[in-house]
């Protein structure tokens, strides 16, 4: 509990940081690195043992063992993905979870394709845990192309040294995930109490975070039906019947639950000659991490049945039907949380024929492709950045006194490594503050991070 309170305290401190730097930070992201195919950015957790080489040292990932020994892996994984996926409600992107073959980070993988995006062997964003060579770095992420043109692009490295820390509590890890995913999408650091602050981690997406991600990818776009005024209500449904093929089936590709309140309505009149079972499938697997919900209604709007799915799961409704009957189907997100938006496909069939396939966007982009040169001077600034700045914050040393040290360290050692050139790091030593039991007893301990001095230090962190 103490830890939770002190995290809150640190977050409150963040709100006092100067805000006049915000505009500059937004501009840093403008025209910066971005995924060639934001419509489907894949994500994978590497299996333990997956190798990552940094500064000539090869480490093996211990993520799943480290987490499973303390927490329920499925719960932790969902909370991590919650933070990562949170960006999808603000930007025109989809994240889809895929498997990972365990090939070394930065490699071509076990299959002959070698793609910076869309490689069949692992996600575009691979997540693992290694002992990072920087003791005060909690996690890091590689920027997307064109800043990084190897398969390392977008990969997120968690520091094993912090595996027992509050950073990786299931209740807190979404904050780390949101920050690192921001880098993996192309964002640099932003001052203030925001997701992209380099040290004061908060799980509050502020307008400045949202503006920054929308500068790159734009806001999330409604599907073509919604844009055309179709499917928004039971009285303006998307007509399924006139699209059915000779075997009484159709698959809607490219449809989207765009906001937590988006409802996509479909209407089906059972044709004569069709089979006696209506099948409706809301397919999210490998398209997004939408937690889907399907509701079936009769012609009078009475609910017949509903099916819900976990994030990224595909769900199916079945109903015995007769020719001439009319049904409505409502496709939505299951709830209103981070997983309540995302791309899906709606598959309909009133026969025994195979379902018409889902079209998964082809995102294959060869690694090493340098044709995607930075589009602007600001992008070039990021592209040229070889400095990984870090902020170290020391905790107290006395029972009733505190000392703060703030230091922005140009990471000269990293400069020599091409691998690290485009790494952006969430850095801090907040744990030393969390462990400071004086903070709440000491009425004067209102400024543990040094106030304006910290703000000045943050302002200098311009990556
Ligand atoms: Ca491959
Ligand atoms: Ca990658
Ligand atoms: Ca929609």
Topology:
Layout: H1 2-15, H2 22-29, E1 41-45, E2 51-54, E3 57-60, H3 63-68, H4 73-85, E4 95-97, E5 115-117, E6 125-130, E7 137-142, E8 156-159, H5 173-185, H6 207-217, H7 224-227, E9 238-239, E10 249-257, E11 264-269, E12 277-283, E13 292-298, E14 303-308, E15 315-320, E16 326-333, E17 342-349, E18 365-366, H8 377-384, E19 390-393, E20 406-409, H9 412-415, E21 423-427, H10 430-434, H11 438-441, H12 452-460
Parallel strand pairs: 1-4, 1-6, 6-8, 9-11
Antiparallel strand pairs: 2-3, 5-18, 7-8, 7-21, 10-17, 11-16, 12-15, 12-17, 13-14, 13-16, 19-20
Helix pairs in contact: 2-6, 4-5
The structure holds calcium ion (3 copies).
The site of one calcium ion (CA) has 9 residues, from strand 10.
